[in-house]
Design brief:
about 60 residues
Length: about 60
């Protein structure tokens, strides 16, 4: 059975799963949660530093 190409479909070369694409997908699957956690920690530090002075002033009254 020969593969027929439909109009508007992606090329066979763009949709083939290769060992390189598997490796990249695996590395992203492992790395992205850690990157997201790190960026979330950095964001929380900046959010806390912005709100901290206001809460300490209101507690002093």
């Amino acid at each position: 059975m020969a593969k027929t190409r439909k109009k508007g479909s992606l090329s066979y070369h763009l949709t083939t799963v290769t060992p390189l694409s598997k490796t990249i997908a695996f590395l992203l699957f492992i790395a992205l949660p850690f990157i997201g956690f790190y960026l979330g920690m950095q964001y929380q530090k900046t959010a806390d530093s912005v709100t901290s002075p206001a809460t300490t002033i209101s507690q002093a009254k």
